[in-house]
Amino acid sequence: MKIIGARIRAARKARGLRQEDVALASGVGVRFVHDLERGKPSVEMDRVLRVVEAVGLEIHFDERPGP
Predict the structure, then answer these.
(1) Do 33 and 19 touch, CB atoms closer than 8 A?
(2) Structural domains of the chain in order of their starting residue, each with its CATH number
(3) Residue 36 pLDDT > 90, yes or no?
């Protein structure tokens, strides 16, 4: 969550958005955005994805090589 939070914060700042702007655009509270950006592990994934979309990011998954 720390990596996701850092990427969200960087994208938000690069777009000149405040945490309040992201919260409003994604339908979550400002406190949620604050906690998410700081890597709080107890966040809800559906809300995380809404924030990711609000700051213009996408999440991609890659398979790791097997043992």
Answers:
(1) yes
(2) 2-54 (1.10.260.40)
(3) yes
